[in-house]
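Q: Could you write out the predicted structure for this multi-component system? I'm mainly interested in how the pieces pack against one another.
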Amino acid sequence: MMRAIRAAAAFTVLIVMMVSLAAYAQPTKELKQIFPKMYLATGLEWKGESTQNTNWNKICEDPKGRIWWAGGDHWGTDRAGGVYNDRYDRPWGFGNTTVHYYDPKTDKAVEVFELDRASAIYSNAETPGHGKIHSNIQSDSKGRIWAAGYLGSSYNHEFTNAYFPKSYAGGALVRYDPSTDDIDYFGIPTPYGGQVALYLDEKRTTVFGFSVDRARFWSVNYETMELKHYETNGRFGLREMIMDNNGRCYFVNEYQGLTRFDPNTETFTDLPIKIPGLRASCVSKDNIIYGICSLGFVWSLNPKTLEVKNYGHVVNVPDEGVYTPNICIDDDWQRLYFIAGGHGVTLAGMPILTILDLKTGRFLWPGKIDIDGSYGAVVGKDHSVYFGCYAYAQKNGKRLKNSEGKEYRTNYLIKYEPPRNLEDIK
Amino acid sequence: MRNKIRIYWLLAAAVLTVITLPAHAQRRGNIFPGLVMRHYLIADGPEGPIHGGESAVTDMLLLGDGWVYGSTEATWGGKSCHIFRTDSFKVEHVLNLTQRLSDQPKIKDMDIGPGGILVGVTTTYDETFDDPGNTYEGGHIFSFDPATKAFVDHGVVSRGNGLNCVAVDTVHTRVYTVTYPEGKLFSFDYLTKELKDHGVVMKPWRVKDLGRVSWRGVPKTLFITDEGTVYFSTYTDKGAQKDDQGDPTNIGTQGGRIFRLRYGDDRPVYTGAVVPTQTGMDDDPLYECGIASAIRAADGGFWCGTVTGGFLFKFHPSTSTVINKGKPFQYWNLRSLAYGGDGRLYMLGGRDYDNAWLLRYDTMTGSIECLGWPTHTTQMGVICADKNGRILMAENLRSSYIWVYGESGRMRVDDGPEDVPPGAGGEVRQP
C-alpha cells in the first residue's frame, strides 16, 4: 500500500513537471507544410558521417548571382543530433565551419573553404576553432567574399572557473576571392571574441564588426590594416548591428531606440526614436531600415526623417514571442520575407514562412517548413528567396537517421520561389 | 514496483533539470545569482538630462547626507559631464558641470573637501591633447556643496593640460593634483588661492593603440596621510646609463617607485618603497607599473592596488614598508577599492575599457577571492559602499549601469525581488 502511495506521489510529481514543461511550448495552428528546395552543406565528415550541425550566419548574393552561405559543427559538441562522440579524434579538432555557394544557373551547391584552415587555426579541445559563422557573409563589388568566425560561449573563456571552451582565439576575418581561389587572412579583430556582425564599407575600405564578447564594436581598414576598437554598444541586441547605405552603423540601445555611429566623425548618437527591438535587419535600396525584434514585431526606420513605422507581429500573435532572427527584402516587388520561429519557438509545429507585402502592410503565410531555425536570408536577382537554415537531415520531406538510428541535425540552404502575384498563395 | 518508483523519480529529476536549466545556464563568470540586488541606468537617454555618452562613471563618494555622489565623463562624441547621486535604488541628477565649465567634458576624479563638500578635477578628450592646434584652456579644480548647491570654480591649473587625479588635505587647506599629459604635481591652497608647481613627476609615453591615443604613466591616484603627506607612484630616472659593456641602456630608469611630498616641501622624494610586480609579466615596467587605487587602512597604512600586476598590497607610510597580499585574479589593474559593511575590502579589477571583476579581501583572515562579474559586457570603473555597506559598482560606458552587490551590507535588507539581468529577450538570452 505504502509503495503504491509512493509510486502515485512520484507519478504525480512527474505529471506536474511535464505540464510545466509543456507550458513552454507554443500553440499550434493548422498550416500546410511546404517543401522548398533544400541544398545541403557538405564537408566536415568524420567516419563517413557529416558533423554539420548548426549555423547562424547571414547570407548574401554575389555579383554573379550566386548565394553564399555556411555550415558549421557548432563546437562539434552540440546538444542534439550532432555526431560528436569522436570529436577529439577529428583532424580539424573542435569546431569548424564550411563556406558554400549555390549557383542558380546550375542549380548546384558547392563547398568552397573551411574557416579553420582559412584562418590557420589548429583547432583542438584546448583551443577550439570556429564552430560557426554568426555574423554576415558579405560580398564586395568584385565578388570577393568576407566572413568571420564565432564560437558559442566564447565570452565565458576568461573567468577563472571557465573550463570550456578554454581559449577560443577569436573570430578571424577572412576574404575569399572566387576568381583566384585565394584566401586573405586579416587576423582577429577582437581576441577571444566571436563575431556576431560584419559589414563592408567599400567607400571607406573598411570592415565594421561587432563581437559578442564585451559587445565590442570594431573596424578594420583593409587597405592600411588599421584596427580600431570603439565603445561597447548594442548590449541589448548583442547579436545584431545595422549598416545603412551611407556606412552609418546602428545598435539597439537601453532606451528602446537605436544608437547611430557616424564613420566620418567616429561618434555615437542616441536617436530620439522608439522601436520594438532588434534581432534581424535589412536595408532597402532607398535606405530604409527594416527590422524585426526577438519577439516578432516588424518595423522600419527612415534614417533621414527618423520616422518609425510599425507593421505588427510577424505571425499575428502579438501575445506570443516568436523568435525570428532573419529578414530580407525584395526591393522590386516591395516585400519582406521571414521564416518566423525556430530555435525552439514555433506556433505551427514548424517555423512559418512569412511574407510582408509592404504595399499593403499585409502578412501572408505560404506554409510551414521543417527546419530548426534560420538566421540568414536574401532575395536573389530572380526574386527567389534564400534562407540559410539548420534542420534535421531530410530527403523528400522525410527525416533521415544516422548510423546510430537517430535523427541528426545539419545545415541547409533553402530556396523559395514566390509567386509574382501574392493572390496566388493559397 | 520499487524499480518503477525509482524510474518515476529519476524521470522527475530529469524533467526538473530541463525546466531549471535556463536559470543555471548563465554566464559562468557571473557573480552568484541573487547577490546582485539590482541595477539601474545612470543615463536618461536622448531626453536627458544625462544623455547616452555622458554617463561613464569616473568616481563615487559616500557623503554625510547618506547619498553616494558620482562623477561622469563624456565618451565618443558626448559633450557633457555630470555629478549625480544615488541611494542604491535610483539616480538623481545633481549638476551638469559642462554647463558651468564649458570646455570640460570630463570630471576625472573627486575627493571630499572641507565640511564634506565635493572637490573635483576636470579634463578633456585625449584626441584634443593630441591636436597641436587645440585651444583647450586646461583642467579646472572645482568644489560643490551638495547641501547648498554652491559651486566654486577654482580655476585652471596648467594651461592646455587636463587634471588626472586629486587629493585634499583639509588640515593644511591644500588640494593636490597631477596634470595630464604634462605629468606635473601641483598643490592649490583653497584659502589663499595660491597654486604651487612641484615639478614634473612623470614624462608619460604617448601611445596610439586600436585607434585611440593616450599617455601612459601619469599617476592615477594620490593619497594623503593625516599629517598631510601626499603619496603617489612614478619612476626614478637617472638618465641614460651604460651597461657593463659600455652600451647605453635604460637601466637608469626604474618604474613603480612610491614617492612622497611632505607638506611644505618643494619637490617629492622617493620613499624607497617599490610597487610589487610580477617580474617578466609586462614589457612596460615604467609606465604601467604603478598604483591604480588606494584606500586608507585602519592602522594608518593604505591598501593599494597595482596597475601591471593587479596585486593588492599594504603600504605603511611611517616605515615605507610594502607588504604584498597577492592577487585574486589573473588580470591586471586593481582599479578601485571600498570597504563593505561586512568589514571586508572589496576591489574592482580589470583592464581599462574591458570587463571588470568584483574581488574581495578579508583583512582579518587574509582570504582573497574573485566574486565574478555582473555580465560579460559590464565594464566598470569604480566601486563605492553605500550607507548600508552595500557595494555599488558603476560602469564607464556610454549607457552605464550601477550594479548593487548586496552581500556586503551590514545587515540583510529586504530590497524586493531578485535582480534580472538586462535585456530580457535581448542580451544573450537568445542566439
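A: Regarding packing and overall arrangement: Helices of chain B lie at 2-24, 97-100, 126-130.
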